[in-house]
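Journal club prep, shared notes

We agreed each person brings one worked example of a sequence with its structure written out as tokens. Mine is Threonine synthase-like protein. I'm keeping it raw so we can talk through how to read the token line rather than staring at a rendered picture. Sequence first:
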Amino acid sequence: MEVDYAYDRAPSSLFAAPGPAVASSGLERWQPLLPPLTAPGLGEGGTPLVELEPGIFIKDESRNPTWSHKDRLNRCTVSAALGLDAPGVVVASSGNHGASAAAFAARAGLRCVVFAAPDMPPAVDAFLNAYEAVVLPVPRDARWPLMRMVVDRMGLHPVSNLTRTHTGHSFGPEGYKTIAYELYLDLGVVPTAVCVPTGYGELLYGIWKGFTELRRLGVTERLPRMIACEPAAAAPLARAVRQGLPAAEVDVRPTDAYSIVSSVSGYRGVVAVRDSGGQVVVLDDGQLRDARRELARAGLWTELSSAAGLAAVRALGLRDEPVVCVSTSSGFKDRAVGDRSSEDVLPEWTAVQSRLHAAGIR
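Then the structure, token by token:
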């Protein structure tokens, strides 16, 4: 299901913003092009665009309230729950989506139930419980049937997928499309390509829809190529595009990029890649780790999955300026967070000097 608007009624001043940065106290700025925002916000959106090197930009979505892009989605989906007078929301997630849904539900005075995987990162578990969500770790394949029962029997509103191949909440990509609006205002032009970490493809599609709306409104004639960045451990979108299918299902192998690994794709991802003349890049964990280290050297601490955009830029050798990599969330969300990696040092100069020399500091 697609959401449409009375585009001819959108204020002409909506995209006339002074300066390179988009000041925002939330998604309210874009209300004429969004579903009703009945849920109170948390200052989501308006995230910084960091130039990594000439022509290569990082859209840092970790600066959102719960440190991920999912805050844009959940401002819209929790608003839908309020609009339906639902007593709460339910979500299947072991990371960013669950944490964000729990935060926006708490802000709106709604209960939140999260069906998580048993191996979810401890830091994410603490995050969810801080918002007093009901966290239910269950085997992965059991999450969706149980979620359906909660919806049918208890009336909670689903803010994540319920279908075998991914269809998702129709309001979800509406929140994501505001990234396209911000990119246009920050850059002053439409980027040549946008590289997006991709699981189900909702973020990819939402950004693409935002750019198509800019063209529909007469703001620009140019559109970017959408580059979907999938982990090699499971790349259903790559298979769907390769075989000309609306969606595909694949086996999942082990990977540390848990936020974007998925056995199924959704039709929205195929639409974004096909209609933009884009492509799907499949990346292994080694490429993701290299990109994450490069981002860290530039002062950006990202989740492993979030480094997929830059990994794709390096794999493709992209040089057409400007290129944007969407970094979806903070390194806080990775599974290894909580494991100490620093070794103690004796509190004396010779020991300290030795460690510094070993690190190349002289």
